[in-house]
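Thread amino acids onto this structure.
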């Protein structure tokens, strides 16, 4: 009486498999290789020619299989992706993503058109609209971001500028009364103390150094260091000093990349009560002991805001 039995799944990495113990053929079978014919009680079946072989001739090479490679070809065909032909299909709204620009109908992320993700607004665009100015990125609310109920960047910048203007006026008002006899000595002592802790380029000659207090306004800028004491060359321009100050306080500086005033850094002179022009010389605008503040999005520099 013949008994039916299931055959174990073949090893995906070998061209042969061992017969199941319950298979009647496993009781013993002669090797099909004509020069062997050995009786093997644990025979192997070749998955290419489907004959049984002994341990020594179980591989296709050992028994010179007439259908060598058939099992590998069958496995490749089984593993082939059934959707490989769908790549050539014309993309539609159901199968592809469209450029997020409201007036663009280009499909992106296809075999013929790549897509670019804008990291600011979290939207995908075609190559034509990949730049921020091309898709009006500044007017879009980033996808996944919570609605902003607080003050805008422009409002924050305006409020910060107003505070520092008031601070500058207060300092100017306090300076109007007749100075006391020890005020000069106190100022010199403060400058000497500043010189001991200030950092800067050691290549700058001592006689050309101006020592300043530098701060980063928290409402409009993000910095790892909120303030510091530094010295700069009096022959440098305000723009160069701003670059060095931003680097020292680790504030993001995109002034040299273009763009609008909303992302541009400016430098506010507290004692002078005004925004400094990028082209001004430090030696003509500042003296040792002054305080300057880095602000973002406050607009272009304006004339002296402190009125006598």
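Threaded sequence (308 positions):
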């Amino acid at each position: 009486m013949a008994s039916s039995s299931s055959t174990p799944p073949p090893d995906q990495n070998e061209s042969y498999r061992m017969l199941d113990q319950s298979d009647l053929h496993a009781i013993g079978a002669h090797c099909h290789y004509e020069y062997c014919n050995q009786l093997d009680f644990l025979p192997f079946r070749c998955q290419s020619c489907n004959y049984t072989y002994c341990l020594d001739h179980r591989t296709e090479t050992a028994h010179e299989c007439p259908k060598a490679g058939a099992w590998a070809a069958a496995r490749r065909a089984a593993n082939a992706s059934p959707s490989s032909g769908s790549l050539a299909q014309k993309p539609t709204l159901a199968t592809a993503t469209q450029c997020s620009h409201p007036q663009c109908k280009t499909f992106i992320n296809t075999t013929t058109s790549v897509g670019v993700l804008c990291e600011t607004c979290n939207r995908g665009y075609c190559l034509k609209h990949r730049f921020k100015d091309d898709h009006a990125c500044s007017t879009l609310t980033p996808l996944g971001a919570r609605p902003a109920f607080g003050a805008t960047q422009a409002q924050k910048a305006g409020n910060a500028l107003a505070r520092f203007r008031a601070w500058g006026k207060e300092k100017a008002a306090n300076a109007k009364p007749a100075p006391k006899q020890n005020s000069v000595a106190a100022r010199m002592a403060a400058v000497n103390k500043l010189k001991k802790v200030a950092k800067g380029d050691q290549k700058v000659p001592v006689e050309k150094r101006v020592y300043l207090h530098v701060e980063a306004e928290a409402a409009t800028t993000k910095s790892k260091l909120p303030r510091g004491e530094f010295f700069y060359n009096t022959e440098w321009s305000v723009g160069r000093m701003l670059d060095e100050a931003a680097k020292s306080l680790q504030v993001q500086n995109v002034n040299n990349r273009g763009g609008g005033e909303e992302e541009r850094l400016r430098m506010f002179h507290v004692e002078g009560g005004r925004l400094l022009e990028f082209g001004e010389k430090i030696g003509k605008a500042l003296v040792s002991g002054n305080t300057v503040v880095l602000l973002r999005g406050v607009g272009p520099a304006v004339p002296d805001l402190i009125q006598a």
